[in-house]
């Protein structure tokens, strides 16, 4: 079982915790992580791009000049794709890029991503994360105490805490998430993975 230190919001070590091998100590599967990341990015695409084909562009109802005798190449419409102002060949249309991957693969990717954080010493476990008021300055102070103020960080909470979430949302490269909303992409995107003891217990319960 991986053993990591437990910190308080002052950056002091106040104990340690053993993490579950089934979640934080699996054999890392890079293929699964890659598949999960590609799937996440595809599912977040808007798919709203659109362009007009030659049948949708205004004008071009008749031939611009007669077929033969002009010395110029034959043309059927001034709205053909080779004309300025013409339609687009194979024009993109609104579509959904969403697709699903097997749940087992998704879970394996998540566990692999969490394991990489442990192996790279990029996981920080807090005894608790409680704030008296909504104050970005105080949250920045906590990050400085943990020596992660200059690095990107994903902060995982066991449940919704408006004071923490609103204090962190204006800080660049910092994102808060709940246990049931974490995903492989975010875990890998942010360098530091900050999680409370209560959230660790919940992760081990939900993803076991």
Structural summary, described in words:
The chain has helices at 21-24, 30-43, 103-119, 136-145, 162-168, 184-189, 197-206; strands at residues 3-7, 13-18, 123-126, 153-157, 174-178, 192-196. With 208 residues, the protein is an alpha/beta fold. It has a domain at 3-28 and 103-206: Ribosomal Protein L4, Chain: A. Pfam families: Ribosomal_L4.
Explain briefly what this protein structure is.
This protein is an alpha/beta fold and 208 residues long. It has helices at 21-24, 30-43, 103-119, 136-145, 162-168, 184-189, 197-206, and strands spanning 3-7, 13-18, 123-126, 153-157, 174-178, 192-196.
Low-pLDDT segments, ≥5 res: none
Q: For this structure, what is the CATH class of the domain at 3-28 and 103-206?
A: Alpha Beta
Which secondary-structure class do the elements indicate? alpha/beta
Largest sheet: 6 strands, mixed
The largest beta-sheet arranges its strands as: 2-1-3-6-4-5
Shape: elongated
> So, the CATH homologous superfamily of the domain at 3-28 and 103-206?
Ribosomal protein L4/L1
Q: How many individual β-strands? A: 6
- Return the average pLDDT rounded to an integer: 94
Count of discrete alpha- or pi-helical segments spanning 4 or more residues: 7
Order of helices and strands: EEHHHEHEHEHEH
For this structure, the CATH topology of the domain at 3-28 and 103-206 is Ribosomal Protein L4, Chain: A
How far is the first residue's CA from the last residue's CA? 14 Å
Which percent band covers the strand fraction?
5-15%
